[in-house]
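Record type: ASSEMBLY
Status: queued
Input:
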Amino acid sequence: MSPLPDTAPETARPCLPKALAESPVFLLGRLGFELKRRAYEELEAAGASLWDYGVLAVLAEGTCGAQSSIADRLRLDRSQLVGLLDGLEERGLVERRRDPEDRRRHAVSLTPKGAEELTRLRAIVEALEDEVLAPLDSEERAELGRLLRCVASRANGRSAPRDEPVAVR
Amino acid sequence: MSPLPDTAPETARPCLPKALAESPVFLLGRLGFELKRRAYEELEAAGASLWDYGVLAVLAEGTCGAQSSIADRLRLDRSQLVGLLDGLEERGLVERRRDPEDRRRHAVSLTPKGAEELTRLRAIVEALEDEVLAPLDSEERAELGRLLRCVASRANGRSAPRDEPVAVR
DNA sequence: TATTGTTATACTCTATAACTATA
DNA sequence: TATAGTTATAGAGTATAACAATA
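Status: finished
Output:
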């Protein structure tokens, strides 16, 4: 009605347009993005990166016979992994050793110190998880998890059949 | 057991470590990120960007009395908005006109062509939505939407009280 | 010649800081 | 002086390409 008053009414509180705020996909995208940003931020404050966390988590499931297998699992480019492993190795969290049978390869494994670090980082991520999921009771959390896994499993199987980077961060 | 065979068994199919793949927050982050990437990609193929979509969606709810109000709603920096509006204006989708009462301000509004474009882009996003949510029946979709809104509303109210960028993309 | 790990380079997106014109 | 819009610059993150060693 009034021609553009000082503080326009439609922008009194900065909020997203309904069309977006109600779209599940938009919400998913925004939440996910924000979440990653926060995880990144908090891990960084703890002296690590989200990628570090991913790498350590992969190695916790067993030594990797080649660096590229880590990269593949995280859908990370090999060249990016190099720097990450350099940092982790310097900090004594992982160990690279040449494969005597194929001297091009490096077997990568977690050191005891690396396992400790993973525990520490996991605690940080879990705290974030608790905080973000706080508005949901345990039943709702389980349901959300189920729905997400359902969506994710298809997205994995179909939308990234080859080399589409999915990016842990 | 066997010392690092050619294709290490634990990496037969490149998949995420369980610790990550089962974490709802990690799933949320990954899905959201991937989703945004795809939306960005598909809109770009249609000659627009995710930001364009956001800006048009904001304007569809009414003329904005100042560019900064658009930026605030999308949690986008003012300086970034300039280029976006330039592009949209060149394409005749939005209109900038000086506010006669405060000549520093530009009122921004959607043109009829812009409204059409929004419809077109919305269709693209909705198609993506359908595709991604395909594994869920309509009841599950509604439930997912409910849970996400629940989590998001708190995240908005709490985690970004001031100037934390939440980024449409 | 193909592959593993590595290094170097370029590009995209975003964050920050200046600048102008109005108030 | 403060604010709206704009422009310019720098940084992070990532993608791509070239490279050396080994197969």
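Annotation: Residues 24-45 of chain B form the longest helix (22 residues).
Annotation: Residues 1-12, 157-169 of chain B have pLDDT under 50 and may be disordered.
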